[in-house]
Amino acid sequence: MNIKVLQQNIDKIIIAENSVDNKLQEICNTLKNSISYYNWVGFYFNHENKKELKLAQYAGEETEHTIIPFGKGICGQVAVSNENFVVQDVSEQDNYISCGWKVKSEIVIPIFVNGNNIGQIDIDSHSANIFTEKDEQFLEYVCKKVASIL
Ligand code: SME
């Protein structure tokens, strides 16, 4: 789908009369349904002050990784680095938490509220080498919009 149209769809979800939880769920569903190689889309947020991430809304297969300690896996590393993490081939990563053999690549973009990294969007793909700078830019847009309602 055209990225501009997708951004407009995200904007509509953000400004709708709806709870934050429902909006986040709709964003997961929209992203997964609109971009063929987004096979799992979820939000992790910092869990209290425990230096761990907790899974919130997601679209795709259920995962047992509902709590991820800071520093562990791709998600846990982004909680510490505050930077986007694009993994083109997960088999080359030592510090990686597998969510199933089908996953070949992953992208994690942090969400900042008042300059603080408070969580992230995490996307898994069944295709290797699939994410580009366009995904990063688009997902940064999504994360900024999400930050505006938190
Ligand atoms: N692969 C992630 C774990 C979360 S799942 O992808 C849903 C990681 O290494 O942090």
Automatic annotation (TrEMBL):
Organism ancestry: Bacteria, Pseudomonadati, Bacteroidota, Flavobacteriia, Flavobacteriales
Species of provenance: Polaribacter pectinis
InterPro entries: GAF, GAF-like_dom_sf
Name of the protein in its database record: GAF domain-containing protein
Pfam name, any one: GAF_2
GAF domain residues: 19-150
Highest rank taxon of the organism: Bacteria
